Amino acid sequence: SLILNPTENVPFIYDIENTNFFAGLYVSERFKDVNDKVIFAGRNEYIEFFQYIKKEWSKKLKAYDVDLKSLSGLNAHLILFLCILKPGDKIILLPEIAGGHFATEEILKNIGAITYQMVPNYEKLGVDVSKTMKLIESEKIDYVFVDRSEGLYYEDFSWLKNCTQCYKIFDASQYISSILCGHFMNPFDMGFDMIITTLHKNYPGPQKGLIAVKNADVVWEQYLAHAKTYISNTHPKAIADSLLPLMYKEQFNKYCETCNSCVSELEKLLFDYKVPIVRRSDEQTPTHHLWILCSDKYKSYQYYLKLESIGLLTNYRLLPYNLGYGLRIGLNAAVLCGLKKKHISKLAKIMSDAYHNDITPALVKSCHKFIRKIKTTA
């Protein structure tokens, strides 16, 4: 099979067996002394090593400091919010209807925060800036949280620089590789104070969370002071592995460039083959996400099953902006398995045949041969 889903990835493959001794160790994020309640012996060299890794991540993201204690995804969100929010704090977030994560608001409400939603612009598949700005100002919002788990465009939130009274957090999980390679604007340059990201979706790393802060501030000190209450083990092997893709700069940049060129080519060819791809505007910065939207959810689901039956693993889901149910397509994991731009014409033809025709033994055989060819020449 071949993963065609932008929110899953496979790690870069390296000969890193000598890091296995990290697995299971309790390693603190700081040096400990006689006043600490619990100390494990023989960890100071590891702590020094992790401080080096954190400094390297800080350089890459142009951050004042980073933290790698949390696990990925919602775990990182939960830990962060538990550390920094107080009951009654006001936070505005990207709603699910505009591509935000479906679980974020419930997490925030359970902590006791008062939640507000950014106003969607359905026509441009983005945020209505003027209406959202008015809401932030009128409600005296404390925190802004942008977590676009689904979207066709990398939206410019530089207008948030005008919101000086609130703390701004950006989730870069879907975009972190392109940010690191300079293809996308760094959220800090948009005016965000903090970046939170996973390291296994767009980035080909371990299932780890990373939190970076632009400047030393009260919120960051609050997070560091409380995080150790919720995290007893830093999962040191994952921290050690987190920097590996960036150590192979040429390969990593090639991975990013290949992802972008392959997604653009697949979008064009699927459109030419009359597969119902949602075309992206040239006026905005495209992400690595593609959407296929059939005439109704049952046909979208049937197409999803047809692709699965021949070994192409996509993501059936409710798309934002009231578009309905469709398929979310991405190529980052496939690129790590060997997919290149020269393969896209064949991939598009197979996907087209599956869309327009019944699944035949010949099509199954053709797709399996195609997948084997990709993986054996990687």
Explain what this protein looks like in three dimensions.
The chain has 378 residues and is an alpha/beta fold. It is 40% helix and 14% strand. The chain has a seven-stranded mixed β-sheet, with helices on both faces. Helix 2 (74-84) runs parallel beside helix 3 (104-111). It is globular. The protein starts with a strand and ends with a helix. The mean pLDDT is 92.
By helix and strand content, what is the structural category? Answer: alpha/beta
Topology order in helix (H) and strand (E) letters: EHEHEHEEEHEEHHEEHHHHEHEEEHHH
Beta-strand content estimate: 5-15%
Q: Tell me the total number of β-strands.
A: 14
Radius of gyration of CA atoms, rounded to a whole number = 22 Å
Backbone shape: globular
Strand order of the largest sheet: 2-10-9-8-7-3-4
The low-confidence runs, each spanning 5 or more residues with pLDDT under 50, are none
Termini separation (Å)?
Answer: 15 Å
Largest sheet: 7 strands, mixed
**Oligomeric state of the chains in view:** single chain
Average pLDDT level: 92
Tell me the helix content: 40-55%
Question: Summarize this, please?
Answer:
40% of the residues lie in helices and 14% in strands. It has helices at residues 44-61, 74-84, 104-111, 129-139, 176-180, 187-190, 218-230, 236-242, 244-247, 249-272, 297-309, 332-336, 344-356, 361-376, and strands at 2-3, 65-67, 90-93, 114-117, 120-121, 126-127, 143-146, 167-171, 194-198, 209-213, 290-292, 312-313, 315-319, 324-329.
